[in-house]
């Protein structure tokens, strides 16, 4: 798939988001992609456009870290083009400036009095005003479906905080996809960062499909790289936002504070994979690791994050004498599927010290493999269409590129397996937990919700045989969620995602075993009568979420088990007569 094909495929995804404004649909698609590859946190679509004095202010979405110490703001510069078109740097810079003004006025506490309190932008402005002094990282991204020359602008200073300004254009987005992995943009020049190549032992491949390098990273180097790339360094199957409260991390913190010179003796080190390396002599003349492309940490994420956050919160800590042992595996396989399987196995066997990580080694779990296999053999009731289970990120587009070799075959593929019938692992987790009446878990974000599903699967609580009948019920739950989400989107200005998740849980709670999932599978949609009922309940769910939030941001309140308890305790309208899906 070339860049032009990727652009047109992206435009199809935007059209299927059902967001009232196309520029917000584009923002949603791109932000979720950035979240999936670890570039940002759980994103929220949030539209605001206004003036402060003579200055224009604009924002399309945001993402905030759990600790509220990092924030990303997004502004959409969408043209809806189907051909590769350049966007002037002046346009992207202007969009970045509009978003920067929004941030500045929020930080100064000047914008709240001019805003409608019922919008999610009001809640964001309040959060920025309250959290701004404690923010360690602030980034603004301009999202555009055109091709930008400049991808990064000069950082700005606002109230003693450095604001990074970047552009995620269609070309940069395509590079992520075309490499088939999120690590394609991560390059580390150790000669520049550390002052020289890192002394190492290089073991070339013999029968294995990887070379091996044993080296030691200065902790200052690891700190610098993590500050630049953050969670993107963590391998996709083990990517989660790591807590610094566990016993392992507590020990790391104490060693850094009290005995930094003993860190290498106490720590097992980290395991890194890379796509490409360059060697150069060290200053002493020995072999050295000079440069690395595609760096990913498959074991040692807690070590890395703990070093970073311990130093971030305790500036007096000196990392100069801290060393971290490292094993680097340089991948040689040309087969992307075998490579991902190797990465997963490396992660699995290297990550034996922490059970939570085991739950995240998911792509090759029997559950996901079984669902993927069923998706290739179970056809829709029309006998021609299928759903696509995207077990590996990007595999849907890879399938189109591999099998759609001519315009005719590509069209046939898209007709039989449209993007609207693609389900990712995190999508599936959202659909299942919404139906299982756990909307507060869904509200925690795609990664945490997915981890919760995997923990349940790994614990053996998912006892149903994964057969054709199970698969059809699963797809029916996906259809319910997608149809509900489509109904809710145009109904409310804000928090549509939270309303949709809670509404599906209310539907499951109200109708329970009386709901006929088989009928949903057969019609591949919801009946008009059921959609009318969902519209009534949507207004009631929206109302109770606002009433019980007591002024808190709905997106934050929705994460609490207490929120779901209060929603459940509310009385709702009786189901209409004649709903076909009710047995």
Largest sheet at a glance?
A: 8 strands, mixed
Into which percent range does the helicity of residues fall?
40-55%
Number of strands: 18
Q: How far is it from the N-terminal to the C-terminal residue, by CA?
A: 46 Å
The tally of helices reads 24
Average pLDDT figure: 84
Question: Low-confidence spans: pLDDT under 50, at least 5 residues?
Answer: 235-248, 352-361
**What number of domains?**
3
Q: C-alpha Rg, in Å?
A: 25 Å
Structural class determined from secondary elements: alpha/beta
Given the C-alpha coordinates, what overall shape results? Answer: globular
The proportion of strand residues reads 15-25%
Structural overview:
This protein has 583 residues and is of the alpha/beta class. It is built from 24 helices and 18 strands. The strands form 4 sheets. Strands 9, 10, 11, 12, 13, 14, 15 and 16 form an 8-stranded mixed beta sheet that branches. Strands 1-2-3-5-8-7 form a 6-stranded mixed beta sheet, with helices on both faces. Helix 1 crosses helix 2 and helix 3 crosses helix 4. It starts with a helix and ends in a 14-residue tail after the last helix.
Write the layout of secondary structure elements.
Layout: H1 3-15, H2 22-36, E1 43-52, E2 55-64, E3 70-77, E4 86-87, H3 89-107, H4 120-131, E5 137-144, E6 147-148, E7 152-158, E8 161-168, H5 170-179, E9 187-189, H6 190-194, E10 198-203, E11 210-218, H7 219-229, H8 247-258, H9 263-266, E12 270-274, E13 276-281, E14 287-293, E15 296-299, H10 301-313, E16 323-331, H11 336-350, H12 355-360, H13 366-377, E17 388-390, H14 395-403, H15 407-416, E18 422-424, H16 425-435, H17 439-442, H18 446-458, H19 468-488, H20 496-511, H21 517-523, H22 528-549, H23 554-557, H24 561-569
Helix pairs in contact: 1-2, 3-4, 7-10, 8-10, 16-18, 16-19, 16-20, 19-20, 19-21, 19-22, 20-22
């Amino acid at each position: 798939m070339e860049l032009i094909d990727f652009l047109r495929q992206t435009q199809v995804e935007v059209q299927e988001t059902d967001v009232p404004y196309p520029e917000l649909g584009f923002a949603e698609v791109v932000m979720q992609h950035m979240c999936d590859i670890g570039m940002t946190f759980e994103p929220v679509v949030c539209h605001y456009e206004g003036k402060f004095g003579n200055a224009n202010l604009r924002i399309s979405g945001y993402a905030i870290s759990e600790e509220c110490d990092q924030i990303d703001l997004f502004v959409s510069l969408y043209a809806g083009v189907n051909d590769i078109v350049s966007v002037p740097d002046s346009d992207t810079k202007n969009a970045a400036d509009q978003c920067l003004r929004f941030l500045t006025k929020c930080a100064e506490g000047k914008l709240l009095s001019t805003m409608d309190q019922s919008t999610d932008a009001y809640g964001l402005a309040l959060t920025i005003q309250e959290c701004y002094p404690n923010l360690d990282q602030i980034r603004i991204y301009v999202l555009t479906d055109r091709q930008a020359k400049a991808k990064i602008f000069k950082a700005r200073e606002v109230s003693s905080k450095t604001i990074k300004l970047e552009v995620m254009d269609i070309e940069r987005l395509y590079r992520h996809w075309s490499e088939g992995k999120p690590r394609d943009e991560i390059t580390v020049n150790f000669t520049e960062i550390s002052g020289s190549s890192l002394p190492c032992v290089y073991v070339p491949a013999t029968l294995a499909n990887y070379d091996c390098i044993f080296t030691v990273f200065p902790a200052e180097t690891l700190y610098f790289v993590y500050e630049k790339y953050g969670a993107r360094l963590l391998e996709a199957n083990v990517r989660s936002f790591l807590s610094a409260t566990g016993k392992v991390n507590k020990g790391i913190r104490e060693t850094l504070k009290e005995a930094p010179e003993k860190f290498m003796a106490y720590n097992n080190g980290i395991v890194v994979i890379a796509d490409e390396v360059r060697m150069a002599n060290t200053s002493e003349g020995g072999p050295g690791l000079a440069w690395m492309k595609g760096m990913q940490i498959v074991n040692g994420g807690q070590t890395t994050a703990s070093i970073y956050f311990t130093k971030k919160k305790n500036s007096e800590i000196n990392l100069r004498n801290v060393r971290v042992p490292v094993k680097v595996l340089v991948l040689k396989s040309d087969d992307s599927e075998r490579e991902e399987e190797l990465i997963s196995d490396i992660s699995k066997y290297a990550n034996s010290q922490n059970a939570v990580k085991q739950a995240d080694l998911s792509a090759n779990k029997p559950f996901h493999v079984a669902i993927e296999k069923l998706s290739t053999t179970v056809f829709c009731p029309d006998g021609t269409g299928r759903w696509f289970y995207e077990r590996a990120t990007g595999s849907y587009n890879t399938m189109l590129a591999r099998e759609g070799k001519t315009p005719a075959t590509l069209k046939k593929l898209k007709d039989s397996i449209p993007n609207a019938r693609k389900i990712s692992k995190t999508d599936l987790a959202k659909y299942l937990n919404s139906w299982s009446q756990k909307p507060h878990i869904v509200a925690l974000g795609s990664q945490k919700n997915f981890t919760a599903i995997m923990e349940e699967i790994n614990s053996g609580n998912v006892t149903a045989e994964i057969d054709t009948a199970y698969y059809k019920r699963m797809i029916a739950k996906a259809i319910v969620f997608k149809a509900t989400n489509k109904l809710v989107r145009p109904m409310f200005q804000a928090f549509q995602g939270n309303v949709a998740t809670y509404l599906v849980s209310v539907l499951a709670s109200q109708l329970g075993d009386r709901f006929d999932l088989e009928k949903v599978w057969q019609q591949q949609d919801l009946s008009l009568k059921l959609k009318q009922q969902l519209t009534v309940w949507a207004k009631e769910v929206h109302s109770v979420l606002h009433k019980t939030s007591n002024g808190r941001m709905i997106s934050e309140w929705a994460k609490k088990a207490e929120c779901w308890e209060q929603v459940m305790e509310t009385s709702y309208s009786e189901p209409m007569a004649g709903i076909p899906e009710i047995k």
